[in-house]
Amino acid sequence: MSQINFLQVDAHHRVAYETTGSKQGIPLVFLHGGPGSGYSEASKSFFEQNRWFATFIDQRGCGNSAPQGSIVNNTTAHLVSDIEEIRKQVKVDKWVVFGGSWGSTLALKYAISFPEKVYALILRGIFLGTRDEINWFINEMGRQKFPKTFSAFQQIVPNDIDTLQYYYDTIFGHDQLQSLEAVRRWENLERAGMQLSEANLINKPGKSQLRADNKITATGIEALNRMKIHLHYLKNNCFLKDNELIDTCHMLGEMKVSIIHGSEDPICPKKNALKLHNQLKSSKLELLKNAGHDAFSPKIKNALTKALENIRKDLI
Question: Which of 15, 16, 152, 312 has a CB 3.0–4.6 Å from the CB of 58, allowing a cystine?
Fold first, then answer.
Protein backbone atom coordinates (compact mmCIF):
# COMPACT_ATOMS: atom_id res chain seq x y z
CA MET A 1 0.00 0.00 0.00
CA SER A 2 1.39 3.41 -1.00
CA GLN A 3 1.90 6.27 1.41
CA ILE A 4 2.29 10.02 1.12
CA ASN A 5 5.89 11.21 1.31
CA PHE A 6 7.21 14.72 1.85
CA LEU A 7 10.22 16.51 0.42
CA GLN A 8 11.45 19.69 2.12
CA VAL A 9 12.20 21.74 -0.99
CA ASP A 10 13.09 24.97 0.84
CA ALA A 11 12.77 26.52 4.30
CA HIS A 12 9.09 27.25 3.68
CA HIS A 13 7.65 24.35 1.64
CA ARG A 14 7.16 20.62 2.11
CA VAL A 15 5.98 19.04 -1.13
CA ALA A 16 3.82 15.92 -0.87
CA TYR A 17 4.16 13.06 -3.33
CA GLU A 18 3.06 9.46 -3.60
CA THR A 19 4.17 6.51 -5.71
CA THR A 20 1.99 3.64 -6.88
CA GLY A 21 2.46 0.55 -8.99
CA SER A 22 5.43 -1.70 -9.57
CA LYS A 23 9.03 -0.50 -9.50
CA GLN A 24 9.51 -2.81 -12.49
CA GLY A 25 6.91 -0.77 -14.36
CA ILE A 26 7.59 2.19 -16.63
CA PRO A 27 8.25 5.36 -14.59
CA LEU A 28 5.68 8.12 -14.97
CA VAL A 29 4.86 11.38 -13.21
CA PHE A 30 1.32 12.76 -13.01
CA LEU A 31 0.99 16.56 -12.94
CA HIS A 32 -2.36 17.86 -11.72
CA GLY A 33 -4.29 20.84 -13.04
CA GLY A 34 -5.55 24.06 -11.56
CA PRO A 35 -3.21 25.66 -10.76
CA GLY A 36 -4.07 24.77 -7.18
CA SER A 37 -6.10 21.59 -7.46
CA GLY A 38 -3.89 18.79 -6.14
CA TYR A 39 -4.09 15.19 -7.34
CA SER A 40 -6.97 12.90 -6.37
CA GLU A 41 -7.55 9.19 -5.85
CA ALA A 42 -9.35 9.21 -9.20
CA SER A 43 -6.10 10.36 -10.83
CA LYS A 44 -4.63 6.94 -10.13
CA SER A 45 -7.29 5.16 -12.19
CA PHE A 46 -5.47 5.87 -15.47
CA PHE A 47 -2.48 3.66 -14.62
CA GLU A 48 -2.43 -0.14 -14.36
CA GLN A 49 -0.52 -1.05 -11.22
CA ASN A 50 1.58 -3.80 -12.76
CA ARG A 51 2.59 -1.75 -15.82
CA TRP A 52 3.48 1.67 -14.41
CA PHE A 53 5.53 3.07 -11.57
CA ALA A 54 3.58 6.31 -11.17
CA THR A 55 4.47 9.32 -9.03
CA PHE A 56 1.79 11.85 -8.05
CA ILE A 57 2.85 15.29 -6.84
CA ASP A 58 0.85 17.89 -4.93
CA GLN A 59 2.39 21.10 -6.23
CA ARG A 60 3.51 23.79 -3.75
CA GLY A 61 0.61 24.99 -1.62
CA CYS A 62 -1.74 22.29 -2.98
CA GLY A 63 -3.38 19.20 -1.53
CA ASN A 64 -1.22 17.61 1.16
CA SER A 65 1.73 19.91 0.54
CA ALA A 66 2.43 22.43 3.29
CA PRO A 67 1.74 25.17 3.99
CA GLN A 68 -1.49 24.91 2.04
CA GLY A 69 -2.35 27.97 -0.03
CA SER A 70 1.13 29.48 0.30
CA ILE A 71 2.24 31.73 -2.56
CA VAL A 72 5.70 32.41 -1.10
CA ASN A 73 8.44 31.08 -3.42
CA ASN A 74 5.69 29.59 -5.57
CA THR A 75 6.32 30.02 -9.29
CA THR A 76 6.42 27.77 -12.35
CA ALA A 77 10.21 27.61 -12.09
CA HIS A 78 9.93 26.41 -8.48
CA LEU A 79 7.45 23.69 -9.51
CA VAL A 80 9.72 22.50 -12.33
CA SER A 81 12.61 22.29 -9.86
CA ASP A 82 10.44 20.30 -7.44
CA ILE A 83 9.52 17.78 -10.14
CA GLU A 84 13.19 17.21 -10.91
CA GLU A 85 14.10 16.83 -7.21
CA ILE A 86 11.31 14.29 -6.73
CA ARG A 87 12.52 12.35 -9.79
CA LYS A 88 15.86 11.99 -8.03
CA GLN A 89 14.10 11.11 -4.77
CA VAL A 90 12.15 8.21 -6.32
CA LYS A 91 15.34 7.06 -8.09
CA VAL A 92 14.25 6.96 -11.71
CA ASP A 93 16.50 8.06 -14.58
CA LYS A 94 13.74 9.13 -16.96
CA TRP A 95 9.98 9.10 -16.94
CA VAL A 96 6.85 9.65 -18.98
CA VAL A 97 5.18 12.95 -18.08
CA PHE A 98 1.37 12.98 -17.99
CA GLY A 99 -0.52 16.26 -17.48
CA GLY A 100 -3.85 17.86 -18.28
CA SER A 101 -4.97 21.49 -18.44
CA TRP A 102 -2.52 23.41 -16.19
CA GLY A 103 -0.74 20.06 -15.86
CA SER A 104 -0.07 20.16 -19.61
CA THR A 105 1.52 23.61 -19.19
CA LEU A 106 3.79 22.38 -16.42
CA ALA A 107 4.58 19.15 -18.28
CA LEU A 108 5.74 21.13 -21.30
CA LYS A 109 7.83 23.51 -19.22
CA TYR A 110 9.47 20.62 -17.34
CA ALA A 111 10.18 18.67 -20.55
CA ILE A 112 11.63 21.76 -22.25
CA SER A 113 13.85 22.32 -19.19
CA PHE A 114 14.92 18.66 -18.80
CA PRO A 115 14.34 16.92 -22.15
CA GLU A 116 16.95 14.29 -21.34
CA LYS A 117 14.83 13.14 -18.37
CA VAL A 118 11.60 12.59 -20.33
CA TYR A 119 10.70 9.52 -22.40
CA ALA A 120 7.46 10.98 -23.76
CA LEU A 121 4.64 13.41 -23.00
CA ILE A 122 0.93 12.64 -22.72
CA LEU A 123 -1.00 15.90 -22.65
CA ARG A 124 -4.72 16.59 -22.30
CA GLY A 125 -6.73 19.82 -22.57
CA ILE A 126 -3.84 21.99 -23.72
CA PHE A 127 -3.24 25.24 -21.83
CA LEU A 128 -0.19 27.23 -22.94
CA GLY A 129 -0.22 29.79 -20.12
CA THR A 130 -0.68 32.85 -22.36
CA ARG A 131 -2.41 36.13 -21.54
CA ASP A 132 -4.91 35.49 -24.34
CA GLU A 133 -5.98 32.18 -22.78
CA ILE A 134 -6.34 33.72 -19.33
CA ASN A 135 -8.34 36.60 -20.79
CA TRP A 136 -10.52 34.14 -22.72
CA PHE A 137 -11.53 32.25 -19.57
CA ILE A 138 -12.15 35.34 -17.44
CA ASN A 139 -13.76 37.71 -19.93
CA GLU A 140 -14.98 35.82 -22.99
CA MET A 141 -15.82 32.16 -22.35
CA GLY A 142 -18.76 32.90 -20.07
CA ARG A 143 -19.96 35.88 -22.10
CA GLN A 144 -20.12 33.78 -25.26
CA LYS A 145 -21.18 30.40 -23.91
CA PHE A 146 -22.65 30.69 -20.39
CA PRO A 147 -24.28 34.15 -20.16
CA LYS A 148 -26.25 33.62 -16.92
CA THR A 149 -23.22 32.28 -15.08
CA PHE A 150 -21.06 35.04 -16.50
CA SER A 151 -23.55 37.69 -15.38
CA ALA A 152 -23.33 36.38 -11.80
CA PHE A 153 -19.54 36.19 -12.10
CA GLN A 154 -19.29 39.83 -13.17
CA GLN A 155 -22.11 41.14 -10.96
CA ILE A 156 -19.92 41.68 -7.90
CA VAL A 157 -17.10 43.41 -9.82
CA PRO A 158 -17.15 47.25 -9.70
CA ASN A 159 -17.17 48.87 -13.14
CA ASP A 160 -13.80 50.56 -12.72
CA ILE A 161 -11.86 47.45 -11.54
CA ASP A 162 -10.29 44.70 -13.63
CA THR A 163 -12.11 41.40 -13.05
CA LEU A 164 -9.01 39.34 -12.26
CA GLN A 165 -7.71 42.06 -9.93
CA TYR A 166 -11.05 42.20 -8.08
CA TYR A 167 -11.19 38.45 -7.55
CA TYR A 168 -7.53 38.37 -6.49
CA ASP A 169 -8.03 41.15 -3.93
CA THR A 170 -11.23 39.58 -2.61
CA ILE A 171 -9.84 36.06 -2.28
CA PHE A 172 -6.82 37.42 -0.42
CA GLY A 173 -8.96 39.84 1.62
CA HIS A 174 -9.76 39.68 5.34
CA ASP A 175 -13.54 39.10 4.96
CA GLN A 176 -13.64 35.32 4.62
CA LEU A 177 -17.37 35.16 3.89
CA GLN A 178 -16.93 37.64 1.05
CA SER A 179 -13.94 35.62 -0.13
CA LEU A 180 -15.97 32.42 -0.09
CA GLU A 181 -18.74 34.06 -2.11
CA ALA A 182 -16.13 35.03 -4.72
CA VAL A 183 -14.88 31.43 -4.74
CA ARG A 184 -18.44 30.20 -5.36
CA ARG A 185 -18.94 32.47 -8.36
CA TRP A 186 -15.54 31.62 -9.85
CA GLU A 187 -16.11 27.88 -9.35
CA ASN A 188 -19.52 28.16 -10.99
CA LEU A 189 -17.87 29.54 -14.11
CA GLU A 190 -15.36 26.67 -14.03
CA ARG A 191 -18.17 24.17 -13.42
CA ALA A 192 -20.20 25.43 -16.37
CA GLY A 193 -17.14 25.03 -18.56
CA MET A 194 -16.48 21.51 -17.28
CA GLN A 195 -20.04 20.26 -17.68
CA LEU A 196 -20.81 22.28 -20.85
CA SER A 197 -23.96 23.53 -19.17
CA GLU A 198 -25.26 26.19 -16.80
CA ALA A 199 -27.38 23.61 -14.95
CA ASN A 200 -26.56 22.35 -11.45
CA LEU A 201 -24.62 25.40 -10.33
CA ILE A 202 -24.24 26.35 -6.65
CA ASN A 203 -26.43 29.28 -5.58
CA LYS A 204 -24.69 29.92 -2.27
CA PRO A 205 -21.82 28.48 -0.22
CA GLY A 206 -22.82 25.02 1.01
CA LYS A 207 -22.94 23.41 4.42
CA SER A 208 -19.53 21.87 3.85
CA GLN A 209 -18.04 25.37 3.59
CA LEU A 210 -20.01 27.20 6.29
CA ARG A 211 -21.14 26.32 9.82
CA ALA A 212 -24.54 27.29 11.15
CA ASP A 213 -23.02 30.45 12.67
CA ASN A 214 -21.64 31.43 9.23
CA LYS A 215 -18.07 30.63 10.24
CA ILE A 216 -15.93 29.05 7.56
CA THR A 217 -15.25 25.30 7.80
CA ALA A 218 -12.08 23.35 6.98
CA THR A 219 -13.60 22.54 3.57
CA GLY A 220 -14.18 26.23 2.96
CA ILE A 221 -10.58 27.02 3.90
CA GLU A 222 -9.40 24.34 1.44
CA ALA A 223 -11.48 25.98 -1.30
CA LEU A 224 -10.00 29.38 -0.47
CA ASN A 225 -6.45 28.01 -0.46
CA ARG A 226 -6.95 26.38 -3.84
CA MET A 227 -8.24 29.65 -5.26
CA LYS A 228 -5.33 31.61 -3.78
CA ILE A 229 -2.87 29.46 -5.72
CA HIS A 230 -5.06 29.67 -8.82
CA LEU A 231 -5.29 33.45 -8.87
CA HIS A 232 -1.66 33.89 -7.87
CA TYR A 233 -0.65 32.09 -11.07
CA LEU A 234 -3.21 33.71 -13.37
CA LYS A 235 -2.40 37.21 -12.11
CA ASN A 236 1.26 36.58 -12.87
CA ASN A 237 0.63 35.08 -16.34
CA CYS A 238 1.67 31.67 -14.96
CA PHE A 239 5.21 33.03 -14.52
CA LEU A 240 5.87 32.49 -18.22
CA LYS A 241 6.82 34.90 -20.96
CA ASP A 242 3.97 35.23 -23.41
CA ASN A 243 4.12 32.42 -26.00
CA GLU A 244 7.14 30.99 -24.14
CA LEU A 245 6.13 27.36 -24.53
CA ILE A 246 5.43 27.63 -28.26
CA ASP A 247 8.65 29.56 -28.79
CA THR A 248 10.80 27.02 -26.95
CA CYS A 249 9.09 23.66 -27.57
CA HIS A 250 11.59 22.92 -30.37
CA MET A 251 13.84 21.88 -27.46
CA LEU A 252 11.80 18.67 -27.30
CA GLY A 253 13.38 17.49 -30.55
CA GLU A 254 11.93 14.15 -31.67
CA MET A 255 10.31 13.38 -28.30
CA LYS A 256 6.99 11.59 -28.69
CA VAL A 257 4.08 13.78 -27.63
CA SER A 258 0.48 12.55 -27.48
CA ILE A 259 -2.10 15.34 -27.41
CA ILE A 260 -5.68 14.53 -26.40
CA HIS A 261 -8.17 17.37 -26.65
CA GLY A 262 -11.96 17.68 -26.61
CA SER A 263 -13.17 19.56 -29.68
CA GLU A 264 -15.90 21.26 -27.60
CA ASP A 265 -13.61 22.25 -24.72
CA PRO A 266 -14.64 25.83 -23.78
CA ILE A 267 -12.02 26.28 -21.04
CA CYS A 268 -9.01 25.46 -23.20
CA PRO A 269 -10.13 25.92 -26.83
CA LYS A 270 -8.94 23.40 -29.41
CA LYS A 271 -6.82 26.05 -31.18
CA ASN A 272 -4.32 25.61 -28.32
CA ALA A 273 -3.87 21.93 -29.21
CA LEU A 274 -3.63 22.68 -32.92
CA LYS A 275 -0.99 25.36 -32.31
CA LEU A 276 1.14 23.00 -30.22
CA HIS A 277 0.72 20.11 -32.65
CA ASN A 278 1.84 22.31 -35.56
CA GLN A 279 5.06 23.18 -33.69
CA LEU A 280 5.97 19.60 -32.76
CA LYS A 281 6.87 17.35 -35.70
CA SER A 282 6.74 14.18 -33.63
CA SER A 283 3.42 14.91 -31.89
CA LYS A 284 0.18 13.04 -32.44
CA LEU A 285 -3.07 14.98 -31.99
CA GLU A 286 -6.42 13.40 -31.26
CA LEU A 287 -9.33 15.87 -31.34
CA LEU A 288 -12.36 14.17 -29.82
CA LYS A 289 -15.77 15.15 -31.18
CA ASN A 290 -18.49 16.00 -28.64
CA ALA A 291 -15.96 16.02 -25.79
CA GLY A 292 -15.01 18.89 -23.48
CA HIS A 293 -12.45 19.49 -20.73
CA ASP A 294 -13.28 16.68 -18.29
CA ALA A 295 -10.45 14.12 -18.14
CA PHE A 296 -12.83 11.49 -16.73
CA SER A 297 -15.46 11.71 -19.47
CA PRO A 298 -15.58 8.32 -21.23
CA LYS A 299 -14.19 9.54 -24.58
CA ILE A 300 -11.24 11.41 -23.10
CA LYS A 301 -10.37 8.78 -20.51
CA ASN A 302 -10.47 6.06 -23.17
CA ALA A 303 -8.20 8.10 -25.45
CA LEU A 304 -5.74 8.73 -22.61
CA THR A 305 -5.71 5.04 -21.73
CA LYS A 306 -4.92 4.15 -25.34
CA ALA A 307 -2.18 6.78 -25.51
CA LEU A 308 -0.60 5.34 -22.36
CA GLU A 309 -0.67 1.84 -23.81
CA ASN A 310 0.90 3.00 -27.08
CA ILE A 311 3.72 4.73 -25.22
CA ARG A 312 4.22 1.68 -23.01
CA LYS A 313 4.55 -0.61 -26.02
CA ASP A 314 7.10 1.74 -27.55
CA LEU A 315 9.21 1.64 -24.39
CA ILE A 316 9.19 -2.08 -23.54
Answer: 16
The DSSP H or E segment spanning 220 is helix 218-235
* Phi and psi angles of residue 8, each rounded to the nearest 5 degrees, phi first: -80, 105
Render pLDDT for 176-206 as a digit per residue (tens, 0 to 9): 999 999 999 999 999 999 999 998 888 888 7
- Burial per residue of 127-155, b for 16 or more beta-carbon CB atoms within 10 angstroms, e otherwise: bbbbeebbebbbbebbeebbeebbebbbe
Question: For the chain, what is the domain count?
Answer: 2
Question: Range of 144's domain?
Answer: 131-238
Which of 110, 111, 193 shows the shortest CA–CA distance to 146? 193
Percentage with pLDDT > 90 across the chain: 90
CA distance 94 to 96: 7
Give the pLDDT confidence score for residue 293 in this predicted structure.
98
Same domain, 234 and 245: no
